[in-house]
From TrEMBL:
<protein>
    <recommendedName>
        <fullName>VOC domain-containing protein</fullName>
    </recommendedName>
</protein>
<dbReference type="InterPro" id="IPR004360">
    <property type="entry name" value="Glyas_Fos-R_dOase_dom"/>
</dbReference>
<dbReference type="InterPro" id="IPR037523">
    <property type="entry name" value="VOC_core"/>
</dbReference>
<dbReference type="Pfam" id="PF00903">
    <property type="entry name" value="Glyoxalase"/>
</dbReference>
<feature type="domain" description="VOC">
    <location>
        <begin position="6"/>
        <end position="132"/>
    </location>
</feature>
<dbReference type="InterPro" id="IPR029068">
    <property type="entry name" value="Glyas_Bleomycin-R_OHBP_Dase"/>
</dbReference>
Length: 141
Protein backbone atom coordinates (compact mmCIF):
# COMPACT_ATOMS: atom_id res chain seq x y z
CA UNK A 1 0.00 0.00 0.00
CA UNK A 2 1.50 3.35 -0.98
CA UNK A 3 1.07 6.65 0.87
CA UNK A 4 -1.69 7.83 -1.50
CA UNK A 5 -4.00 4.86 -0.99
CA UNK A 6 -6.81 5.74 1.47
CA UNK A 7 -6.86 3.60 4.58
CA UNK A 8 -10.03 2.04 5.89
CA UNK A 9 -11.23 2.75 9.45
CA UNK A 10 -13.92 0.75 11.23
CA UNK A 11 -15.09 0.90 14.83
CA UNK A 12 -17.13 -2.05 16.08
CA UNK A 13 -18.68 -3.18 19.40
CA UNK A 14 -17.27 -6.02 21.47
CA UNK A 15 -18.34 -7.74 24.67
CA UNK A 16 -14.90 -8.29 26.23
CA UNK A 17 -11.63 -6.51 25.41
CA UNK A 18 -9.29 -9.29 26.59
CA UNK A 19 -11.03 -11.96 24.48
CA UNK A 20 -11.00 -9.53 21.56
CA UNK A 21 -7.29 -8.83 22.02
CA UNK A 22 -6.44 -12.54 22.04
CA UNK A 23 -8.53 -13.20 18.91
CA UNK A 24 -7.37 -10.32 16.72
CA UNK A 25 -3.74 -10.49 17.90
CA UNK A 26 -3.16 -14.22 18.40
CA UNK A 27 -5.56 -15.82 15.91
CA UNK A 28 -5.64 -13.26 13.08
CA UNK A 29 -2.13 -11.90 13.69
CA UNK A 30 -3.05 -8.20 14.00
CA UNK A 31 -0.67 -5.84 15.77
CA UNK A 32 -2.16 -3.52 18.36
CA UNK A 33 -1.92 0.24 18.65
CA UNK A 34 -3.38 2.52 21.27
CA UNK A 35 -5.52 1.06 24.02
CA UNK A 36 -7.67 2.20 26.92
CA UNK A 37 -10.06 0.39 29.25
CA UNK A 38 -12.80 1.11 26.67
CA UNK A 39 -11.19 0.34 23.26
CA UNK A 40 -8.24 -1.20 21.37
CA UNK A 41 -6.78 -0.18 17.98
CA UNK A 42 -5.75 -3.03 15.66
CA UNK A 43 -3.64 -2.96 12.52
CA UNK A 44 -5.98 -4.93 10.26
CA UNK A 45 -3.67 -5.59 7.30
CA UNK A 46 -2.69 -1.92 7.21
CA UNK A 47 -6.15 -0.58 8.06
CA UNK A 48 -7.32 0.71 11.42
CA UNK A 49 -10.10 -1.18 13.16
CA UNK A 50 -11.08 -0.26 16.68
CA UNK A 51 -12.82 -2.60 19.09
CA UNK A 52 -15.04 -0.59 21.45
CA UNK A 53 -16.39 -2.14 24.63
CA UNK A 54 -20.17 -2.24 24.15
CA UNK A 55 -21.52 -5.63 25.25
CA UNK A 56 -25.16 -4.82 24.47
CA UNK A 57 -24.38 -4.04 20.80
CA UNK A 58 -21.85 -6.78 19.96
CA UNK A 59 -22.63 -9.51 17.47
CA UNK A 60 -26.14 -8.54 16.41
CA UNK A 61 -27.06 -9.20 12.77
CA UNK A 62 -29.77 -10.65 10.58
CA UNK A 63 -29.03 -13.22 7.83
CA UNK A 64 -29.38 -13.10 4.03
CA UNK A 65 -29.19 -15.95 1.54
CA UNK A 66 -26.13 -15.73 -0.73
CA UNK A 67 -25.24 -18.69 -2.94
CA UNK A 68 -27.25 -21.03 -0.69
CA UNK A 69 -25.60 -19.87 2.55
CA UNK A 70 -26.92 -17.77 5.42
CA UNK A 71 -24.64 -14.73 5.34
CA UNK A 72 -24.69 -12.31 8.27
CA UNK A 73 -25.97 -8.99 6.88
CA UNK A 74 -23.60 -7.11 9.19
CA UNK A 75 -19.99 -8.19 8.67
CA UNK A 76 -16.59 -6.86 7.71
CA UNK A 77 -13.33 -8.29 6.44
CA UNK A 78 -10.81 -8.08 3.65
CA UNK A 79 -10.19 -9.05 0.07
CA UNK A 80 -6.82 -10.80 0.12
CA UNK A 81 -4.61 -12.09 -2.67
CA UNK A 82 -5.61 -15.69 -3.47
CA UNK A 83 -2.49 -17.28 -1.94
CA UNK A 84 -2.83 -15.14 1.22
CA UNK A 85 -6.48 -16.20 1.54
CA UNK A 86 -5.43 -19.87 1.27
CA UNK A 87 -2.75 -19.39 3.96
CA UNK A 88 -5.23 -17.70 6.30
CA UNK A 89 -7.86 -20.40 5.72
CA UNK A 90 -5.27 -23.08 6.50
CA UNK A 91 -4.12 -21.27 9.66
CA UNK A 92 -7.69 -20.84 10.90
CA UNK A 93 -8.50 -24.49 10.20
CA UNK A 94 -5.37 -25.54 12.12
CA UNK A 95 -6.52 -23.39 15.07
CA UNK A 96 -9.92 -25.13 15.00
CA UNK A 97 -11.94 -22.10 13.87
CA UNK A 98 -15.69 -22.63 14.09
CA UNK A 99 -16.68 -21.26 10.67
CA UNK A 100 -20.10 -19.80 9.91
CA UNK A 101 -19.32 -20.65 6.27
CA UNK A 102 -16.38 -22.98 5.65
CA UNK A 103 -13.75 -21.79 3.15
CA UNK A 104 -14.97 -22.44 -0.41
CA UNK A 105 -15.15 -20.93 -3.90
CA UNK A 106 -18.43 -19.13 -4.59
CA UNK A 107 -19.92 -18.39 -8.05
CA UNK A 108 -17.59 -20.90 -9.74
CA UNK A 109 -17.16 -20.19 -13.44
CA UNK A 110 -19.28 -17.02 -13.24
CA UNK A 111 -18.39 -13.33 -13.13
CA UNK A 112 -17.24 -12.49 -9.62
CA UNK A 113 -15.97 -15.98 -8.78
CA UNK A 114 -14.40 -15.72 -5.34
CA UNK A 115 -12.94 -17.68 -2.49
CA UNK A 116 -14.74 -16.84 0.75
CA UNK A 117 -15.05 -17.82 4.40
CA UNK A 118 -17.03 -16.43 7.31
CA UNK A 119 -16.40 -16.74 11.03
CA UNK A 120 -17.14 -14.81 14.20
CA UNK A 121 -14.92 -13.10 16.72
CA UNK A 122 -15.47 -13.85 20.43
CA UNK A 123 -18.16 -11.12 20.62
CA UNK A 124 -20.14 -12.63 17.75
CA UNK A 125 -19.09 -10.06 15.14
CA UNK A 126 -19.02 -11.72 11.72
CA UNK A 127 -15.94 -11.44 9.52
CA UNK A 128 -15.58 -12.39 5.87
CA UNK A 129 -12.28 -12.89 4.13
CA UNK A 130 -12.38 -13.36 0.38
CA UNK A 131 -10.12 -13.47 -2.66
CA UNK A 132 -10.52 -13.07 -6.41
CA UNK A 133 -8.21 -14.44 -9.08
CA UNK A 134 -7.94 -10.88 -10.48
CA UNK A 135 -8.95 -7.47 -9.18
CA UNK A 136 -11.10 -6.95 -12.28
CA UNK A 137 -13.49 -9.59 -10.91
CA UNK A 138 -14.22 -7.68 -7.68
CA UNK A 139 -17.04 -5.66 -9.23
CA UNK A 140 -17.87 -7.98 -12.15
CA UNK A 141 -21.61 -8.12 -12.85
Amino acid sequence: MDNTTPLFHLAFPVADLEDTLRFYRDVLGCDTGRRTDEWIDFNFWGHQVVAHLSPDEAGKSSLNDVDGHDVPAKHFGLILEWHEWEKLAERLEEKGMDFIIEPYVRFKGKPGEQATMFFKDPSGNALEFKAFRSREQIFAG
